[in-house]
Amino acid sequence: MSEQATVARPYAKAAFDLAQKSAQLGEWSSMLSLAADIANAPDMQKLLAHPQAGATDLVELFNALGKDAFSQDFLKFLKVLNENRRLNTLPAIADQFEAQRREAESRIKVVVTSAAEIADEQVSRMLNALKNRYQKEVELDIQLDPGLVGGAIINAGDEVIDGSVHGRLQKLTTTLMS
After folding, report:
1. What is the greatest pairwise CA distance in the chain?
2. What are the phi and psi torsion angles at 52 (to 5°)?
């Protein structure tokens, strides 16, 4: 997967630069998300992996499947990807584009994995605390994982805060084994 991320990086930067110059970050974000969904479809993955796939114009297929949701500039971008047999990297390009967009808009995505539902009041307090900590707008994504037993794990950028019972038990086991 890291190879895909490496290959996708210059394309994501180029897409971001194009979108930023035309003041269309939101539109490009939507188009990249749709194109990534199309590229992730199992049948499309098989087609993109086929050795003869580069010989065909897959851009028209993407445009048809996207129901003409793509701008002319975006179709040119897809054409470059197709010519370089990189349409399969669209999901990684979309992810990296979103990371660049969040950085430019001073936002951070925070994923909170909790063992149980979190009350609205707690979510609000957590959101305020995260805004204060990172000095950015926070996109909060709450996921449930009963395997944590209790507590939560917070992933914010490169930082992980493990406040789960499972994590504490792991630390205790490691300490006792040493």
Report:
1. 61
2. -90, 0
Angle at 164 between CA 159 and CA 165, to 5 degrees: 150
- Euclidean distance between CA atoms 151 and 115, whole angstroms: 6
pLDDT of residue 166: 77
Structure tokens at 108: 């951070």
| CA distance linking residue 126 with residue 122, whole number of Å | 6
Q: On the CB side of 14, how many CA atoms lie within 13 Å of its CA?
A: 14
Sequence length of the chain is: 178
104: its two tokens: 């430019």
DSSP string, 35-102: HHHHHHSHHHHHHHHSTTGGGS-HHHHHHHHTTT-S-HHHHHHHHHHHHTT-GGGHHHHHHHHHHHHH
Cα separations (Å) of 152 from 116, 119, 178? 9, 13, 26
Q: Which helix (H) or strand (E) holds 66?
A: none
**Left (φ > 0), alpha (ψ -120 to 50) or beta: where does 81 sit?**
alpha
pLDDT tens digits along 6-53: 999 999 999 999 999 999 999 999 999 999 999 999 999 998 888 776
**Residue 174 — pLDDT band, cuts 50, 70, 90?**
confident
Scanning the structure block, which residue is given the tokens 């114009």?
A: 57
- The single-letter code of the amino acid at 98 is E
